[in-house]
Amino acid sequence: MTATVTDTQVEAVRATSPRRPWRRNDKRPGLGTYVLVLALSVFFIGPFLWLVLAALKTPAEWSALPMKILPAVPRWDNFVHALTDMNFLGYAGNSLFLATVYSTLITLSSAAVGFGFARLRAPGKGAIFLIVLSTMMIPQILTLLPTYVLFSQIGLINTYWPWVLWGLSASPYMVFLFRQFFAQLPRELEDAAIVDGAGWFRIFFSVFLPVSRPILITSFILSFTWTWGDYIAPALLLDLDHTTLSVAITAYYHDPNGNVLPTVQAAGAVMYILPVLIIFFLMQRYFIQSSVSSGVKG
Amino acid sequence: MARKWSRYQKRTFYAFISPWAAGFVLLTAVPMVYGLLVSLTNFDGSSSRWKWVGIRNYLELLGDGDVWAALLRTVFFTVIFVPLSVAGSLGLAVVINRRLRAVGVWRTIFFLPSVVPIVAMAILWKLVFNKDSGILNAILGVFGVPHIGWLQDPTAFYALIILMLWGLGGGMIIMLAALQGVPVELEEAARLDGAGGWRVFWNITVPMISPVVFFSGITGAIGALQVLVQPLLLTNASGIAGVGNVPDSNRLYMVQVYQEFFLSNRFGYGSAMLWVFFLVILGLTLLVLRTTRGLVYYEVDADAEKEGAIR
Question: Architecture of A83-296 per CATH?
Fold first, then answer.
């Protein structure tokens, strides 16, 4: 195989992925590497397939004792049940609403805070920024339980206000992303606006926010998928009438005896993952980018 | 330059960072302090007839066998999971960094599970781990292994680790970026000196990416110590009521805290457990940061880095 690779093919690969510097003495990997990669792919992809297959089986096929790997015919009943056994679309709407509100707010607030750290000056700025970075280390789960107790005392349970408050208060990680981005922009960007007499708030909104589109998108889709997937906060703060899809798909789909209906739950899970997968495939580079920058800095 | 004094006003800076400052005080500091106060009471979560009990909750903690067992289990879990996770993501990154055909496809496949929501992850792995209808036992059955009850004691612990290793792709991307940041000349120079692939990897690549490896280890450990949702969901029951159904081998520290809150309604005691844990994690982080300084290689010196942060 290796021998058939021509120089033009190598050049084509180089052209499509300019950020990967090929090492001159790096040979094409052999068959063993491909066997390994294939085995790993089975581990990473296999469970997805098993989920989809379960969603397409009848309950009898799922629990048949000489196991049936494939359903005789794909059954869509599970999806119908998943949609109608509970108010699936209603819960999906709750998830969508919460995720949209939270992501919009957190993106804007983090951008403002990041802008402050990147472009403005005041005594104590460095020290405050270190505090912001160190709050990244405070485990969310440790504050969530006391927050739940506190919020239940002041009547914020079963409302969406906690997500609004969390959204308004910026996330240290997003602040860091925005600060890094704003700090590398040239000073000339604000100079013209200052000469025109614009204040910093106008400069932020009309000059800096528009140019930070890639970070805005990254922040939004990350917060969105995070909220869509969050289980513990809605499980604690919202009852079954107000909760999100992530809690609902674990709480319903039971037979009268309280046993989980695996095939229906599988169908529900497939529909629940779908939006995340779509966002992921459309926006993969933003996920990868943010993943990279989260590891670069401590 | 003469204009600078008027260009920046303190007020403006504080106004811009006020969302974070307000949030930090109201949504982090206040709940933490509130939790500290609750930990000094016998509050049960609902009744108004609670009273201050001083440090009695903390004293009880010291003699609570369940808490110690949960803590030891959590440390054990962390000690097993973190090295596997760091080595695993580095391993994946090394593989993906080779000149594979269709490398983008493989990378996407490896990365994909790390974006799957935790609830879906649990549902999906429960189907894989299912004793009679799960694919894992079916595959093992081909090799003559009898059916394993993956979600029960004591195997549930390994099921949990497998589930969590499924999300290695996120770590892989971080390691991949680090690997690609290693200057090609360094590795080539070592190769010219006659070093083999293994030696180049251990003596050049690994030291060069040590800050990233180290950072992954620290954040991984902090994350592993407070794992809660995965063991909560990886049971045969569901919902908050399911916290009592977590098999003993998965009763990690945070699960134990959760049980104190929602099974025993001991909010005061649970809050004390949280505070102790917070201090343990804080102390551990500081200790690790202090003792390993000098073991890792940083390209930028600390002063320049600090300068960059303040600017």
Answer: Orthogonal Bundle (1.10)
